[in-house]
Amino acid sequence: MKHLKSLNKFFLKYKWRLVIGFIITVAARIFALFYIPLAGRSTNIIENYINGEITDIQIVRDELAWNILLIIGATLIAAFFTFLMRQTFIVVSRHIEFDLKNVVYKHYQELSLNFYKKNRTGDLMNRISEDVSKVRMYLGPALMYSVTTLTSSVVVLIFMIEAAPLLTMYTVLPLPVLSFAIYKISVAIHKRSTVVQQYLSKLNTFTQESFSGIAVIKSYGIESQTNENFTELSNGSRDKNIALVKVQAFFFPLMVLLIGISNVLVIYIGGRQYINGLIDLGVIVEFLLYVNMLTWPIASIGWVTSLVQQAEASQERINEFLDEEPEITNPKQTPDDIQGDIAFKNVNFTYDDTNITALKNVSFEVNSGETLAIIGKTGAGKSTILELIGRLYDVEDGEITIDGRNIQELNLESLRKSIGYVPQDAFLFSDSIKSNIKFGKTDATDKEIIEAAKNASVHKNIVGFSKGYDTVLGERGITLSGGQKQRVSIARAIIHDPKILLFDDCLSAVDTETEEEILSNLFRISTNKTTIIVSHRISSAKNADKIIILEGGQIVQQGTHSQLLNQEGYYKELYAKQLNEKEM
Ligand SMILES: Nc1ncnc2c1ncn2[C@@H]1O[C@H](COP(=O)(O)OP(=O)(O)OP(=O)(O)O)[C@@H](O)[C@H]1O
């Protein structure tokens, strides 16, 4: 139960509802048991009439009628309280499930990119959905049935001891065996549940990735191979589930066996005590009813134990992520005013997971109002520079400053809000085009959205769709072309008028004419901004105030377009090559 302890704060939040639930459960159990002493009393009256101790049949009739009325009344009240009991415990469990999902989701959002690289999306989704559902079973049904079993057992024991203490002792003899069996089986369930959940994560990751990559699977015609892999994984998952079910299956028969033994003890020992005149016949009837009354609560111990053990295994997996500290943290709460003078000073950067040194001793400056273009072969470290400016990763050697202050000392929210970043593979949400652009500024007016789309040269395309800006993208809607996607994400980046614009090769999928148009729009709107354009094309870089050429993480050339054309090197070669291609 070590890991489930972290849920206690949620129990505290709903403590009053749970206390009320507990009181209701006790009341429900007491009323549910009420009929047993009445049944015993009725048996004794009939026995007394048969023995001749009572001769007036009317007394027997009146007593039986009265007992029947009481039994009906108590049963109705018990049913009502049982309804309230479910309403309390199950509703609280749904509230906690909701809270827990929010906590996990919020924490996921705070974790750095590295975390997302180490863990797979299917696993993240599994923990926030499947694992939280397993934990919910502990918070709701398991808690409710535990309280029911506990109260039923205590109330029944009190009633039994009051009726016949010695017979009670014999009846509860199988209890120690029961506790030992529960302990043994629950350890096995815990181990097997952990494996089942791990398999489920693998299965989810596999399906999620194969659906996301369905275009690749189809174009390579590897559906049957993918099917085989899926079948192999799901067979593994099935086997692990069957192994779990086998252990769980032990519980119910074991409980029923123990209850059966108690019944035999009641009949045998109770019968002897009755023959010896120690107890009434009614007591045996009452005890048989009591023991059977305990059948379901005791049998449910097995089920509850299994739920608790599965929840413990799931909560352990949830805690594993909740205990992850975000690598990138906000150093201060007060916001910062950012102008956008960026400087890299001897920056070295190595990716943790691959150990690839992406940047080596990189230094440059770009001030507000200026445009810097970064050119270089693939893998040269261009995107890494942009990611470091937005603190998606932190540098371990050297320094990045904005307005002369180390970016690690700036308010993280102010820093990120001052940046309009268009990543290499533009990601758009399955929502309308309007919402996708508004993502950059949630309170943007329609006029601002259109203005941003015009500056990104995508307005004409959007109005060409029958639903215009309300056109839904992605799974439920249309698929934009690569160039349209890039331009919608440019509109999203520029709509909030950020001080720093970072474009990561985001004009690669548009034709040169549209590229010219976008660049001239950007030039117009970026007079008081710092713009960094990563590109493989000279056409995107030639008008920049500064151009740097990266090779293997190092700056090998820098200058303006005309300066670089006068130097032998990568830039001049690229220019000649691209000029040739254009002429052809
Ligand atoms: N998230 C990451 N984790 C580990 N290594 C990475 C990561 N991103 C990039 N790298 C590695 O760092 C190096 C620089 O990558 P980067 O993406 O900065 O290059 P790039 O110049 O932008 O390339 P391209 O022009 O292909 O986009 C590459 O060797 C790459 O494999």
UniProtKB/TrEMBL annotation:
Membrane topology: Multi-pass membrane protein
Main location: membrane
InterPro entries given in the database record: AAA+_ATPase, ABC1_TM_dom, ABC1_TM_sf, ABC_transporter-like_ATP-bd, ABC_transporter-like_CS, P-loop_NTPase, Type_1_exporter
Domain ABC transmembrane type-1 as annotated: residue spans: 19-310
Record keyword Electron transport present: no
GO CC terms, sorted: plasma membrane
Transmembrane segments: 16-36, 64-85, 142-161, 167-183, 247-269
GO molecular function: ABC-type oligopeptide transporter activity; ATP binding; ATP hydrolysis activity
PROSITE patterns tied to this protein: ABC_TM1F, ABC_TRANSPORTER_1, ABC_TRANSPORTER_2
Intracellular or extracellular location(s): Cell membrane
Keywords linked to the UniProt accession: ATP-binding, Cell membrane, Membrane, Nucleotide-binding, Transmembrane, Transmembrane helix, Transport
Residue ranges of domain ABC transporter in the record: 342-577
Full protein name: ATP-binding cassette, subfamily B
Organism: Salegentibacter flavus
